[in-house]
UniProtKB/TrEMBL annotation:
Alphabetical keyword list: Isomerase
Domain UDP-N-acetylglucosamine 2-epimerase: 28-349
Originating species: Kroppenstedtia guangzhouensis
Protein's recorded name: UDP-N-acetyl glucosamine 2-epimerase
InterPro entries: UDP_GlcNAc_Epimerase_2_dom, WecB-like
Amino acid sequence: MKVVTVVGARPQFIKAAPVSRCLRRRETEILVHTGQHYDPAMSEIFFEELKIPRPDYHLQVGFKTHGAQTGEMLSGLEEVLIREQPDWVLVYGDTNTTLAGALAAAKLQIPVAHVEAGLRSFNRQMPEEINRVLTDHISDLLCCPTKTAVEQLASEGIFRGVVQVGDVMVDAVEFNRALANDRRILEQLGAKRREYVLVTLHRAENTDDPDRLEEIVSALNELESSMILPLHPRTRNRMERQGLTFTNSRLKVIEPVGYLDMLQLEMNAAKILTDSGGVQKEAFLLQVPCITMRDETEWTETVEQKTNILVGANKRKIIEYVETFHVDFSKAYPVFGKGHTAERIVELLRKNGGCR
Ligand code: UD1
Ligand code: UDP
């Protein structure tokens, strides 16, 4: 079996690593990097740390408007797929890279497998929501992380090829937990266990809306907790353009970190304040209370279990919940599976080879 895997953005490298490792034991994988993320700290570091093989093709698309970025990927991927003639194209998550990979394959009648299928925010203002819906509707194998995702697909009339496999990020956390323990980022930053809040901020709905961005930056500038913020380049760019700066001496702003340092920062944090999808899930898996700067989330189970709270871009709420939010994880039940999701995905690809 020959599988073309399409990745391009940070969370996809992390999700693809366990599947790629498993796939390459017996099958052929051709790895395509679209170049959506290109800074060494957003791309290269994950290939090195997670021992992902070098991409067979690098499309070097870089940052463009949505249409131009997706279109350039589509045309580059089409060429690759015509040359490689794979049995499957494997895509992850909800980025422009995901949609381009799925669409290029579907147009060529090559079966598409979507990992993290069935997630919805029901907010069509998000580029990711458009990417998810379209990708799911042209996929042949839909690997769902949760029961909610399976039910969502059913409500959209998608039944064929839908399988609840668990979340591949559980595999990633479990595989890397011990390695992350040995990192020295806490020591390097002079941070102490459970005495800081880990912050991430990059979602377009926050960074591209001047009012929301100002409100969040203002909250971070007023918070009294120690904080560590590995800053996404998108947020850095937008803040510069808007003339916003961080002025709080308790807030340590650092470059984006690799996955192992990130895990160490997450598992030792007192709380996590984020607008990331992946980080919300990791907070749950690592049992760290999560405060999410969004108005809705795809990971509704974490909110239902009261381990995650949505505060939007509301300064008062951000400050209040960072100071007061506590979670009793003894009552939480697992919703993302127990790992071994990568093996399950590879097995499904084998069983359903060429089902289009
Ligand atoms: C993308 C995904 C988002 C995902 C995020 C993960 C889409 C529509 N969005 O958002 O779903 O959560 O990745 O991090 O696919 N930039 C750099 N260096 C890089 C990468 C980006 O400086 O290596 C800058 C770009 O110049 C641009 C901004 O970051 O200003 C946005 O990059 P882009 O790839 O469009 O989207 P992300 O915000 O990273
Ligand atoms: N991450 C990382 N370094 C960072 C910030 C995040 O390794 O500086 C990891 C994080 O642990 C998670 C993934 O990147 O596994 C989430 O990616 P991101 O927040 O960029 O995107 P999203 O999940 O929101 O699509």
